[in-house]
Every structure is written in C-alpha cells, then in structure tokens.
Amino acid sequence: MSCFLSPSMNNKSREDEGSSMAVPYDRRQIATREAVTMNKESPNNIEAESFTFRELATATNSFRQEFLIGEGGFGRVYKGKLEKTGQVVAVKQLDRNGLQGNREFLVEIFRLSLLHHPNLANLIGYCLDGDQRLLVYEFMPLCSLEDHLLDVGAEQQPLDWNSRIRIALGAAKGLAYLHEKANPPVIYRDFKSSNILLNEDFDAKLSDFGLAKLGSVGDTQNVSSRVIGSYGYCAPEYQKTGQLTVKSDVYSFGVVLLELITGKRVIDTTRTSHEQNLVTWAQPIFREPNRFPELADPLLQGEFPEKSLNQFVAVAAMCLHEEPIVRPLISDVVTALSSMSATTGSPPRTTGSNVLKTVEDQGVF
Ligand SMILES: Nc1ncnc2c1ncn2[C@@H]1O[C@H](COP(=O)(O)OP(=O)(O)OP(=O)(O)O)[C@@H](O)[C@H]1O
Ligand SMILES: [Mg+2]
C-alpha cells in the first residue's frame, strides 16, 4: 500500500481462507523441476534462489520496523540487503494462515521464477523454512504507482501526462507477456495500481503476478471459482461467478487507466455517494466525448493534448465494458497505447529532485 517506512493499512478484500496444510517437507522428495513446465522460449531460464530464514532476517535487520515498506493482503514487505551479494531487495513475508502445502508452494515459485520480461519485477528467490514463507523480489526504488498517483502529498510533483501514458504502456506490455507469451498463460487476478512498481526511470514493472495462487489450499487446479482480487478492480462477471479469464484482467487494467486519467482512487468513501465508485461515476461520461476533459486529474492543470486524452479515455472505456467479449485483448491495448506514446513522444522521466521521499531518503541504507 505505501512505500514509506511506516505500517500501512491493508485495504484488500482478498479472501484469506483455509487452514495451512501440514504437508511433510523433504526437499529430496519434491520433484519440483519435473512438475514445472519449463518455458523453452525464455532465454533466461533462471530458477529462484532458495534463502534461509536467517539470511533474510540478516538482510532486513531482523525485520525491523524501519525496514517495513508496506503491507498488503499477503503480508508485510521489507527492504533488505543480501549479505552475500550486497543486492538491495524487497522481502515479502507471507502470512502463515491460508497457505497451500509446501510442494504446491514450490511448484508455484519455480513457475513464477521462469517468467522474465522487462515489465515484470524479478522474483529473485524464496524462503521455505519451518512454517516461514518469504519471497524475495528486486527492489523498486520509486515504489508503486499508487504512491505517485493516488497518495500525492503537497510536496510531491504529480505525474505528468506523458509519464502516465508510458507507465500504462509498460504495464500493458507486462500483462500481454503474462497473457500471451507465458506458457501456460498467467491470469493476474489482482491487477491494481499498488502492484505496478516503478524503477528510477519510471518504468513500470508488475509485481505479485500469479501470487493469488499461493493463497490457495491444496488443489492447484481448482483456483478459478473463488474470487480473489481487490475491491473496485474486479470485473463484474468475475465477482458474480468467480469465473476467471484474461478479460477480467483487462477490466482491472481499465480501472488503472481510469485512475491514471483522473488521479482518483477507484473506491473512496470520502467522496459524495455518486462519486464513491470511480467506474460508476465515469460510465455516463464515457458516452459523451465532449465531457472527457471533466475526467482529467486537476493536478495535470490541463497540460495534456486533448486528442491524447480522448484516445486514453476511449481505451479505458473499452477495457471497462460490462461484456467481457467486447473488451479488447491486452495486446490490442499495447498497440493503441504504443501509437499514443509515439505521437506524444514521451521522454523518460528522471527521478530528479521531485521524487517522492523514498526509503533511501529515510536513511535505512
Ligand atoms: N519489489 C518492491 N520494491 C519496492 N517496493 C515494493 C516492492 N513490493 C512491494 N513494495 C511496496 O510495498 C507495498 C505493499 O506491497 P504489497 O504487494 O504487500 O501490497 P499491495 O500491493 O497493496 O497488495 P497485494 O497484497 O494485493 O499485492 C507496495 O504498495 C509497494 O509500495
Ligand atoms: Mg502487491
């Protein structure tokens, strides 16, 4: 939720269910490699590294509060530095309840560690030590899109229009890889602005892809009938039936596009009742193109090409269509956003002096 060194609220509606399965764990007995379909097309078939709990405790200074960078539905995230290599990492300590068996956990980890794309945050390794389960990711210095878009403090410079298009394009490319290149395809399930992380050049990298499965118990086949996702981002048909397709992710992507346009959180109970749900509020405006400027984030102060805004809103509206079949494929969205990015000629934004206060600023390392 937040990238600063303070505990943050868990705003998720993900169901944490089931009791942990006490599957006896013996590394020698686990035929994990055989159970994982290797993606032969990937030039970079690196498996996740196994860490001991002690190594990760050392990396995070015993999970000290000052190293806490956020907390989500799966557990807490700490900044750490690996003693062996000096690499700075994000360590996600998974909650101990509701977890699947060790074997399923390892199969999932190996599967995820085979996914490599410039717009995915790299899963470096994991720890399975007693009942402790942790994931180690590359650390993203500018934290999440949510931190730059939805929690903008008076001292922060808001994201400019070109950066918003660039971030949307990067996130769409990451999602397109998961849907259309990964084998088997990965449905994200929990696509949202806090899962879009940013590097020092404001390149988008998706985190937590495929993580929803780690919360399921036992039977890894039977994961599509239970709703896992964050309130407001879930596609209506997924919420009603639990049936999951790539088009549910496209809906969630549309919600993020709408957040990028408006600078508003999808659900905000402090807004007036008809504005509390961003999508419901925006739907009538989608039907009247002359009203599109009403959607624009006031922090942009009108600094965007009107044509570009219109195109962006049109893409968002298509992604948010009630009927999944009418929604575009994410690769179509990549094509649309690529042409917008080319015409606006968005230069990479540098971190400069206007960045958020990151954990470095707070003197952790
Ligand atoms: N690899 C990372 N590098 C830097 N910061 C990260 C990293 N992963 C997570 N964070 C920070 O930690 C916060 C919490 O992340 P976390 O994934 O636990 O929760 P969430 O994204 O809000 O919800 P969910 O559990 O559904 O993913 C993020 O918003 C982000 O600011
Ligand atoms: Mg997350």
Automatic annotation (TrEMBL):
It comes from the Eukaryota. Residues 1-23 are annotated as: Disordered. It is a lipid-anchor. Keywords: ATP-binding, Cell membrane, Kinase, Lipoprotein, Membrane, Nucleotide-binding, Serine/threonine-protein kinase, Transferase. Residues 1-11 have a biased composition (Polar residues). ATP binds at residue 92. The keyword Cell membrane applies. Transmembrane segments: none annotated. Residues 63-340 form the Protein kinase domain. It is found in: Cell membrane. Its main location: membrane. GO terms for molecular function: kinase activity. SUPFAM superfamilies: Protein kinase-like (PK-like) (SSF56112). Belongs to the protein kinase superfamily. This is Serine/threonine-protein kinase At3g07070. It comes from Camelina sativa (False flax).
